[in-house]
Fold:
Amino acid sequence: MAKAKKKILIIEDDLDVVEMLNAYLNIQGYEVLTVNWGEDGIKACLNFKPDIVILDIHLPDIDGYQVARRLRSNRRTSSIPIIFLTAKRTRLERLQGLELGADDYISKPFDVQELLLRIRNALHRAEQDTLTNPVSGLPDGRLVDERILETLPKPGWSMLIVSLENLDIFRESYGFVASDDVLRAVSLMIHNSMKELGGAEDFLGHLSTTDFVLITEPERTTPLAERVHNRLEQSLDYFYPIKDRDKGETRSKRLLVKVGILQSADGHFSSLDDLKISLLRKKR
Structure:
């Protein structure tokens, strides 16, 4: 599977700078989106979901500090690295940027190779910070991949997938805070079930935000799957406000949990992606 391109959002009103950066960064293998106004940059950040933002301080409508402040105050954009572009780098500007959590500064005119290195460094730091899920605190991304790859050559392994369905629908109705509370509670219930029935070497992490993977011994898998499924099924209605618990919505739109089991005896898996696909197909 080809590695996805990192996405860069450039918020800059100098069209010559925009054209130069767009061309250069595209050649370097990045997916680039450019906007010229601060308000447009905020909207683009929510829709484009960049891995990093290059932000000019002096913009035609609102300044870069206001843009950064609003990005940092929104949960969906708060952790995106920001590199400020500035015509001058005064002590006051540095302090303002530090207060807003700026990841780096670069002064105009700048060397594009230096900017490229700063982008790579900021992306690397961000990747190190995303090894755990910010809501549940459980392992995520590369940590999970590494543990799965360590497990595959061993005989007699077993993996359990637990999927929380329709969290996006729940979020649209009740907001990000409520959906984060659900995710946090679900991860805790799964973790507690593992403490009760699992072993010291068992592992729990995220395949995706709403897909959990548990690595355990084959003899513990079925009792653990039943415990997790029953505990979550009994709890899901309580996440809704009382007035909405008895609504006649179809089950397909309500929070629900699906559980599946994949074991070494199920066959040979040619790659990590092959195993993940097989695991996701097991949930029911």
Observations:
- The chain has a mean pLDDT of 86.
